[in-house]
Amino acid sequence: MDLFEHQARQLFEHYGVLVPRAEVADSAPEARAAAERLGGRVVVKAQVRAGGRGKAGGVRLAADPVAAYLTARQILGMDIKGHTVHRVMVAEPVEIEREFYLGYALDRAAGRFLAIASAEGGMEIEEVAARRPEAVARIPVDPDEGVTDAKAAEIAAAGGLPAEAAPTVRRLWRVLTEQDALLVEVNPLVRTRDGAIVALDGKVTLDDNARFRRPRAYAADTADDPREAEAAAKGLNYVKLDGHVGVIGNGAGLVMSTLDVVASRGARPADFLDIGGGASAEVMAGGLALVLGDPDVRSVLVNVFGGITACDAVAEGIVRALDTVTLTKPLVVRLDGNSAARGRAILAARAHRLVHQADTMDGAAARAAHLAA
Ligand code: GDP
Ligand code: MN
């Protein structure tokens, strides 16, 4: 699981890594109040699980609390790489003298960790590595030996980081190992005008296999989309995507191929929703309500191949959903396999003007793509 920047920041702080003073805010008035407490001039940062927020306009300097209010209003609700911004972090601005990059990642093939360090921080490290590979140092770290003072000094030197960054290099290693993380990335790690080494950004990916050891981290706002949280609560396998065709199917393989077919019809899927094998009418109704509630969705494609899940149960779920939510978006349904004829008859009997049936997956995708256009 990826942590939000503000969660990573808290972990860093706990391990003695310097971070700017900051608060999280869910609304513009809260951002203004936070700015007042932080001394007025602040940086307002979108909290989404995606990098490149700066480039997308999700990291902005505000000169005073009123500017922080206005900036937060602009950033909240913004879409960054398909992630809607629901929170901002309001931070004390840092006077940057120089930006560096430091990361630890798991090198699965080699069975060890890799420290990645560079004096070209602030930019996307993949770009730097592609353009000037010699500017990015990759130092293997044996998990049993870990990062000692000597190793930290070696990593800093190899990456062109100042020697005084070594203690931070070591502390970030502790974050990785003691918090069961697979990735810890600080970009930029900066040296400030007054010589301090500060983590100005933070990305931490926790190892889900260790979830049982970190119930708190997982309980605290795990989903960056409220619909993902709702789906998790309903036991649905849902991922928000950035297109406009809502996709619902049974079985991850079928849903993935449905995404491909939608894409081949020139449309972009708005989500991945697998209602699973053996789904009941209730699960179908819950899934449909979830997808219809997404403002990005313009049409919904339900693609079910009845196996353990019978198509008549799916059709009943759709009918039940039609009774509880007012359908304002067209729904294209393709039912095949177990009890398909009964399922189709149930939908035909309901005769809703926004519900269209299609015989094939391709035909259904073409229809849904057309309706979303
Ligand atoms: P990202 O774009 O998602 O990686 O977000 P970052 O947190 O890395 O912020 C993007 C860029 O904004 C950084 O590389 C910095 O150059 C700049 N930035 C962020 N916070 C501050 C700050 O406190 N002071 C200054 N001067 N620049 C900042
Ligand atoms: Mn960054």
TrEMBL record:
GO cellular component: cytosol; succinate-CoA ligase complex
Protein's name in the database: Succinate--CoA ligase [ADP-forming] subunit beta
Residues holding substrate: N250, G307, I308, T309
Stored PANTHER family: SUCCINATE--COA LIGASE [GDP-FORMING] SUBUNIT BETA, MITOCHONDRIAL, SUCCINYL-COA SYNTHETASE BETA CHAIN
Cofactor names: Mg(2+)
Role noted for this protein: Succinyl-CoA synthetase functions in the citric acid cycle (TCA), coupling the hydrolysis of succinyl-CoA to the synthesis of either ATP or GTP and thus represents the only step of substrate-level phosphorylation in the TCA. The beta subunit provides nucleotide specificity of the enzyme and binds the substrate succinate, while the binding sites for coenzyme A and phosphate are found in the alpha subunit.
Residues reported to bind ATP: K45, G52, R53, G54, V94, E99
Residues at which Mg(2+) binds: N187, D201
Keyword Metal-binding: yes
Sequence ranges assigned to domain ATP-grasp in this UniProt record: 9-217
EC number in record: 6.2.1.5
GO BP term, pick one: succinyl-CoA metabolic process
Cofactor: binding details: Binds 1 Mg(2+) ion per subunit.
Reactions catalysed according to its record: GTP + succinate + CoA = succinyl-CoA + GDP + phosphate; succinate + ATP + CoA = succinyl-CoA + ADP + phosphate
Originating species: Streptomyces sparsogenes DSM 40356
Subunit architecture: Heterotetramer of two alpha and two beta subunits.
Family: Belongs to the succinate/malate CoA ligase beta subunit family.
Catalytic class of the enzyme: ligase
Keywords on record: ATP-binding, Ligase, Magnesium, Metal-binding, Nucleotide-binding, Tricarboxylic acid cycle
